[in-house]
Amino acid sequence: MDVLYHALGGVAIAKSMGSPDLLAAAAAAIAPDIMGIIPFYSIKFTEAIRIPGNTFTQTYAHLLRSNKFAGTWDMAAYRSTHTLYGAAFFSLCMFVVFPDQWRILSISYLSHILIDIPTHEGDFATRILYPLSDIHIRGLNWSTNLKLFLFFWLMLAVIMFLLWQT
């Protein structure tokens, strides 16, 4: 799903656990995308600089629309942050750095991965046990499947409404 959805999902998790740390939970929920996509954008940026002809902006936009990994580095970074092993590592780090908040932050991070499993396909499908296994579920692409997109947003809206009623 999109970054806003994940952030609001983190907020819902924090609220449901009675935590006032809504912003921290939102940040943890988008962390897999932020950490995993930086190499993707960086490599595309570098490619756009190197390609002569078109303007940088047009070339960069074209490369991003291709929605393909440029190589093994950006693919490995993305898949490493979208795996149960990545979630376990994140949880361990949060336990050490934020001992009072680690549960909420860890659950928010894990929620991102669990939501991405049915809403990603192809190269971006969530490899659940990466790098030890390529196992993944062939999900549906949330950005091209309007029914899936609306279903997930409707469920989140209902959850948020119920949480703010209490």
Written description of the protein model:
The chain starts with a helix and ends with a helix. The model has no long low-confidence stretch (mean pLDDT 91). The chain is mainly α and 166 residues long. Helix 2 (22-50) crosses helix 6 (102-119). 30% of the residues are buried. The chain has helices at residues 3-16, 22-50, 56-65, 72-81, 84-97, 102-119, 146-165.
> Which oligomeric form is depicted?
single chain
Radius of gyration: 17 Å
How many strands in all?
0
Enumerate the spans where pLDDT stays under 50 for 5 or more consecutive residues.
none
Fraction of helical residues: 55-70%
Structural class: mainly alpha
Keyword list:
mainly alpha; 7 helices; 166 residues; 69% helix; globular
How is the secondary structure organized here?
Blueprint: H1 3-16, H2 22-50, H3 56-65, H4 72-81, H5 84-97, H6 102-119, H7 146-165
